[in-house]
Amino acid sequence: xxxxxxxxxxxxxxxxxxxxxxxxxxLHFIRYPMNAVFRIIQPLIWIAPVYFLSLTFVVxxxxxxxAGYTGTTxxxxxxxxxxxxxxxxxxxxxxxxxxxREEMDSGVLESNWMAPMSRGLLLVGRTVASLVITxxxxxAMLVLARLLFGFRATGSVLAAFGTLVxxxxxxxxxxxxxxxxxxxxxxxxxxxxxxxxxxxxxxGANFPVNVLPRFLLPISLAIPLTYGYDAVRSYVLGTxxxxxxxxxxxxxxxxxxVMVPAGYAFFKLxxxxxxxxxxxxxx
Amino acid sequence: MGEVQTLGQVSLWSTIRAFLAxxxxxxxxxxxxxxxxxxxxxxxxxxxxxYIFVAKALxxxxxxxxxxxxxxxxxxxxxxxxxxxxxxxxxxxxTLWDVGFxxxxxxxxxxxxxxxxxxxxxxxxxxxxxLIKAVMALFLLTVSAVEYRVFFGVRLFQGNPLLLLLIxxxxxxxxxxxxxxxxxxxxxxxxxxxxxxxxxxxxxxxCGISYPMAVLPGWMQRVAAFLPLTYAIEGVRRAALTQxxxxxxxxxxxxxxxxxxxxxxxxYGSFQLAERHARRTGSLGHY
Lengths: 283, 287
Known about the structure:
heterodimer; A: mainly alpha; 11 helices; B: mainly alpha; elongated
């Protein structure tokens, strides 16, 4: 019987490496307990100012002005859902590039990439623990938000999950492309912060995109994530959608089919170039 | 022949040289990573953008809910209201990250212990960083004012510019005093991210960056009364957007002046304590 080890490339070794990375990330998460607690509290802290802001716009006991744009007066649930989706987007879209930067900073990127393992899978491995942690923290956040702000889901959570899956898979494609940019730019912190905030704002994480001025609305409608936020809210809260919801799901599936191979191909191209130039360890 | 003065001998001159050397190092970092500067230009618009469009959504397509906002805030100009709150919070946030993280980064790089072996007061090292960060904050505030005028049509000098300047000057020592106190906490607890999230979160929730204080429950208003940013935001809003006089603003100015003395003292004291504790327990290099 032949033992399979990490040095022999096989699906088993790939899986073992992904699990090892996930375990390492989970240990990091547990090792800094205050950071772990703040993963739950932080989104609620961001929501608090807009929650209090919403109280200043209350007319006859509800946010009727907000309903004029969205079809619901439940502003808090609208924002909370946006925040949870943003957590997932951050875990995959930005998490891949950011983890690459962490490894560059720690000086372990080159040695990790010597491992007999697909570099794409190494990057995917960095998102596994992050997605599990995001799910746990999101549930805890919803429980807390229910107590503090009164979150309530009135529609189908299952249908919302069905919409979330193609969106998340597509985000891996974006994540690969972004990782390639990190290899080129090497100092991505500002780029990550600005782009993540811009993309989440423009795709409607914090407000309905139909409030945007006419010159900004086309940009928002060109970001596929806009339809993800819109469809999930429609399923869970019964909000009005920008276009019929089944078209939004079709856009997300199309986005998934195109983005994953395109993002990965771009990453491979840049990675090969960096190896040729010997710039992997630079920062 | 006069005695040669080197860094190895503690004197006022060696302290100034160390202070300037650290400031120069920070300046070189800024020049090397230019995209940090780009952040100072992009963030003011981007950060306010979120609050402005949330307020627009809440006011409704026909602005029907704006009267409700005006009843609390005393103005229907939610754009001016939001940009002032968000900019002052951003200044505080940047200070917490930059000053607080400076020592933590040195700790992570393994250079904190060796730097602290230098025969200069350690506070001079922190002060060198603060000098560059304060210059950058001035840049941020100036750029913000210009951008708000260009992109959102907000005129921040329509009220009483001199009073506005005075409030800003009184706010500076509080912001950097808190920054130093925060850096001390980071050395003590190591979890810099969590510490920033906690402290900036407190300011975000309690100081009224996007809403009038009147909407907060009583206990939250009492907490807000102990935070300098509450007075700075309220003061800047009134001085920038309305026609107030020095006498009208005297209570706010007095409170800001008290904070301006108290917080740097607290910052210096906590830094000395944290430094002594870290040296005694040998935990300077830990992370």
